[in-house]
Amino acid sequence: MSIFKFAITEKFKEIEDKTGYSKVYFFLATFSLVALLICVTGGMKLASNLVGFLYPAYMSFKALEGGKTVDGDATQWMTYWIIFCSINLLEDTFPFLSRTVSFFYFVKIAGVIWLYHPKTTGAQVIYSSGLRPYLLPLMEGSAKTSKGSKKQE
Question: Which of 48, 52, 80, 110 has fewest C-beta within 10 Å?
Answer without folding.
Answer: 110
